[in-house]
Amino acid sequence: MAHPSYLAFAVPLFLFFMGLEYWYSKRKGKNFFQFAESVANINVGIAERLMDVFTMIPFFYFFQYIHTNYAMFDLKANAFTWVALFLLTDLVWYWYHRLAHEINILWAAHIVHHQSEDFNYTASARITVFQAAIRCGFWAVLPLIGFPAPMISVLLLIHGLYPFFIHTQTIGKLGWAEYIFVTPSHHRVHHSSNPQYLDKNYGDVLILWDKIFGTFVEEKEQPVYGLTKPLNSHSFLWQHFHYPLELYVAFKRAKGFKAKWTVLFGSPEGIDPRIRTHLEKFFLKKRQFFQPTKAHRQYIGIQTTISLVLLFVVIYFYGSLSSLQTSFISVFILISLINTGAILEQRSWIFYLEYARLSVCLLWVCCYYPNLLLGISAATILVIFLYYFRPMEKRYKKILYQEIHS
What we know:
By secondary structure, this protein is mostly helical. The chain has helices at about 10-25, 35-70, 80-100, 105-110, 130-140, 140-145, 150-160, 185-190, 210-215, 235-255, 255-265, 275-285, 295-315, 325-345, 350-370, 370-385, 390-400. Helix 2 runs parallel beside helix 5, helix 2 runs antiparallel to helix 7 and helix 13 packs antiparallel against helix 14. About 30% of the residues are buried.
């Protein structure tokens, strides 16, 4: 199976709709976008799309292996099986999604999607590769029933487009569609932290499952978005790993097998919220508070744009890039995502990541243009950079922030 390079065009397509939504909200005088939230959302999406490059083909062969060796039926593509596959895919999504809210070890992967306190198209990008892998495990029931891998792959691509468009506040209620489909109104409820809205409206395309299984709630008052205990962080690493760390601490504290089992497979409501406060003091203690300059936002914007362009390149040229090239670009992107979050958080170690990115670039040049003089030049640049590290770091931070203390 060749990697479908046309998927790269999903990047500019989704960015177009994000821009359109931003323009519309500003025209209507609505504050649906915060800069830091939007950047953090997009960064999570970049990482997930990047990891998809490496996981899409293995997932396809995983489905194919199950179908070839364990399928209960051998279903052929026709109008009936396509409709059946759509309904079953949506039903499996409902139960995956519901369990991802009800079971801690699944919530650890899904929580990232609910961290944003904005609700707009950028929030739809907040999907981790861990969540994608878990969903793949749930959807493995489809080839087991007898649906062939190509059918499943095509349906999942189409099915995955719809949820993007329900992450918006710019669309009100949609009349008769509210009774059948998941609409923006239904999904606003799902993303809110209002007590009456918690753990409701799990559907992906059809709202029928929520009505059948008793988890449907209509939007009646203004939702408040984000987690019940706000994350208050735009750190790429903290967003991904704070809850697994909370589970780790809770697991260590638990006495006996039953208590430890409950930590992993019990409800998120059972995890002591004070654990996160303790972890924040340890992991997020070296935070500075300076006023960002105009260059701060510009630099983050440029850095995010470069990451998006490189993501497009990796997806579109995946078939022609060598493994080493793909790896170098991927590492550069991931360092950039971590760096962007660290800049937003004003972490003291941001300049170390700039050095890491420079090292990756120079190493890439040396690998593809092996030359003794070039290697010596690259090493010299790194040594000079390291020698003047502190004054350069101070200048770098002065550009990004208005006040810098030694």
